[in-house]
Every structure is written in structure tokens, then in C-alpha cells.
Amino acid sequence: MSKKKLGLALGAGGARGVAHVGFLYALEEAGIRADCVSGCSMGAIVGACYCAGVPVEKIRDTALGLKLARIATVNVNPLRSSGLLRMTKAHKIMEELIGHDVSFEELRIPFCCVATDLVSGKTVELRTGSVIDAALASGSVPGAFSPMEREGMYLVDGGVLERVPVKELKPMGAEVIVAVDVLGDLVSTMKQKPSNLIETFLRYIDVIDTRVTHSKRKSRRRSIDLWLEPELGDMDQYKVKQLDFAFGQGYALGKANRERIGELIEG
Length: 267
Hints:
41% of the residues lie in helices and 18% in strands. The protein is an alpha/beta fold. Strands 1, 2, 5, 6, 8, 9, 10 and 11 form an 8-stranded mixed sheet that branches. The protein has a 3-stranded mixed sheet with strand order 3-4-7.
């Protein structure tokens, strides 16, 4: 009997998104590979590298060595640029991993990612053109990074409306859908009040994001075979630290569930 096609939905999560790498590493050990992947924000960046055929070990080594100074450059005029930071350095890192100007059509595994268009106010599925541009647009946190202009759209982090892009997988051929939400219930982990304007704005996004995600998960319950959340406690997604911890927790999640995933795809 042929195996069912496995679709992975890798959710948004900033620094917590390194857990996705650990999760994929655990599946690779068991000989399980996705047939298609959807991603949002950090999940889009990890997913793009995975679908381009970058070895998970290389993705891991790059992810664990990340620092804010290696990812972003400060905008000289943040107000005019609509963001404090630019992703020029992140773009170069991804080019080193998957190559220059790689298109979706060139990927080894079908992939798509989501971003939020500030012009239409809708979620946009990105599945054509430059993979790197699409993945970085999916991870452009409003206020922190400059939005990306593309075909008349003004794109920011897909997590604003679609933290875990599940519905995109069925049209890609997925028969088994596994969703990995590295953020979980952010509201329950918020122990301290925000101390400045930026933290207040990011907390506002997190609260809305959590409520929207939980609502969508309930409405799509029938189409999701497994919804998984690594145990990341109160790890701050906006601080590039505890990356080894995130990888380890993602690995533990993958190891604990790979037998169940294997059973699902075996039918």
C-alpha cells in the first residue's frame, strides 16, 4: 500500500520557531519526510529551507548561531521606512542556504507561505516568484521590520491573521495534516506587564493572535489530524536567546509523535 501524503503546517513563532527545526530533525531520524509544507513567519523561513533540500543539520547549525545583529540592520529613518529594522542580512543568510533567486517551482518539496496584506487587510498565499522574498515577507513583524511591497501589496507577518496555515495544505495534495504551533496560548504565559511602547504593541498583537488562532483551530478541527505544541514555557519569541532550548523541545515533540505520524501516513 502506498503511504498517504503528509502535509506539515509550520506556524509563526520568532525565536520559538527554532523548535520547528528540532521537530523536523526528529522526523528525519525516523525516515519521515513531508510531501508538502505550509509556513508562516519563522515557520515559513524554516519550511522554505527544508523544501529547498537544505539538510536539517545545516538548518539547525544556522538557526542555533543566530543573533539579532546577524539577521537585521537598523533603518536610518524608521518612521519613513515603516519599520525599525531591515532584513537585508537575513536575506543573505537564506541565499547562502538555498541559493540566489530560487523560485517556488524549483523547490524539491511543494511549499507555500502566508503573509498579511495591509492594503486589502487579507491573508495572502505566496506560492510563486522568489521563495526568499516570500518567506521574509511572511516574517515581517509590523513595526519591527519594514513591510515588503509586492505586486501592489504591502506585506507583513502572516501571523497577524493566520498563525498556523492549515487550509493551504489540502489543495497541495496533503492527505494527512500535522500542524505545529510553537506559540500555543501566549496569553497564559504573559507574566509581566509590557515596559515600553514596543512591548505594548507586540503584546497587543500576541493577544489578538492567540484568540484568532484558537477560534480558527476549532473551526478547522476536522481537517487537522494532529495539532502539536512544544513545551516552551514563557520563552520570549522576540528575543533571540534560548535557541538550544527551543530546538530541544521541538525535537522532543517530534520524537514523542513520530510513531503516531507514521501510523497516520501508513493509513
